[in-house]
Write a structure and sequence with these properties.
The structure is a single chain. With 116 residues, the chain is mainly alpha-helical. The protein folds into 2 domains: 1-32, no CATH class; 33-116, no CATH class. It has helices at residues 2-15, 24-32, 38-49, 67-76, 79-84, 99-110. The two termini are 32 Å apart. Bound molecules: heme C (HEC). Heme C is lined by residues 49-50, 52-54, 60, 62, 73, 77-79, 82-83, 91-93, 97. Heme C binds at residues 49-50, 52-54, 60, 62, 73, 77-79, 82-83, 91-93, 97. It comes from Flavobacterium taihuense.
Length: 116
């Protein structure tokens, strides 16, 4: 795994000048979040981290079961502030999500809530 990364990074550095300061991992993460969509990127994060409570079954508002509901929670219930808060002070209650997941939701919002 380490060798693979090293080789990929070396090839990248040799062929593309702008790759010089990025590791392979950083590049692939950036690629993933250039244009996140609700179906492909946001929904799986919400399903994994929020839906147990924020659904008709969970009973906690705001419900986060559709593109429109998540968008509404961002616009009217401070969802972005909640997920950016220090661990334990925001959402999810059990602790802050990894920054890459937070960034995907922020970028999806900034790009205009693209569905798919
Ligand atoms: C274990 C249950 C649970 C999970 C999981 C959970 N929440 Fe919550 N959430 C709550 C409760 C309870 C409240 C209301 C009390 C509070 O604000 O602390 C709340 C409130 C909120 C609010 C409204 C805050 C306000 O000021 O009105 C938002 C937005 C929110 N959660 C988003 C999320 C998001 C996004 C996730 C997933 C990343 C998530 N929550 C995960 C239980 C949960």
């Amino acid at each position: 795994m380490k060798y693979k990364k090293l080789i990929t990074a070396s090839i990248c550095a040799l062929t593309i000048i702008s790759c010089e300061s990025n590791t392979y991992e950083e590049i692939s993460q950036t690629n993933e979040i250039i244009n996140p969509t609700y179906i492909a990127h946001v929904k799986p994060i919400i399903t994994e981290n929020c839906i147990s409570c924020h659904s008709t079954a969970g009973g906690q508002r705001p419900y986060l079961e559709s593109n429109d509901e998540v968008k509404d929670a961002i616009l009217n219930f401070g969802l972005i502030n909640q997920i950016e808060a220090p661990s334990g002070l925001g959402m999810p209650l059990r602790g802050r999500m990894p920054q890459t997941k937070i960034d995907i939701i922020k970028l999806w919002s900034a790009n205009g809530y693209i569905n798919q």
